Predict the structure.
Amino acid sequence: MAKLNVNPTRMELSKLKVRLKTATSGHKLLKDKQDELMRQFIGLVKENRKLRLKVEGKLQDSFRDFLLARGVMSDEMLEDAITFSQQELGVDIKTKNVMSVNVPKMTFNQTESEEIAYPYGYAQTSADLDDAIEGLSKVMRNLLELAEVEKACQLMADEVEKTRRRVNALEYMTIPQLKETIRFIQMKLDENERGSITRLMKVKDMMAKDKEA
């Protein structure tokens, strides 16, 4: 592991030790965050799978009813029946913070009654069309919930990846570099200290010899 390019002084050694302590503490916090993010992400993935299966099942039922209605109604009658809706729907989007990730929280903003309003009369339409419209109307909230969970999964996955990169950078680059540099500076300082002691001993011997002479 390559060491940092710093001067081998005691002041630099002290600074590096502080940096190592901070990096080690930061690595532990990020590792804990990564573990919790993964736990919540896995929970969201399971919820997303369950919701998707539920929504797909309801949509298949509605599409089957729609195809049955199309079999007994002309294309013109079917198009006239579903062209204009009698309800308006809006979506309120807010955010909530989950482990520093702002995930969406979406709710329907329905201006009229929540009862199903069929956009046609009953005289020339099929009961299968009623079932299809009712099924699609009921599945809308599940679709919104699915969109919310899938977006949360995407955002959480991005945050997990960013946190993983930071953890790996600290674990495999920053902390080893700091440790290697601290070891190198400590060796240099010990070497300089031994050299100083050797020189002092030589000077002492020379002075002793001069005194004897």
Observations:
- Residues 69 and 126 are 6 Å apart (CA to CA).
- The chain has a mean pLDDT of 83.
- Strands lie at 89-98, 101-110.
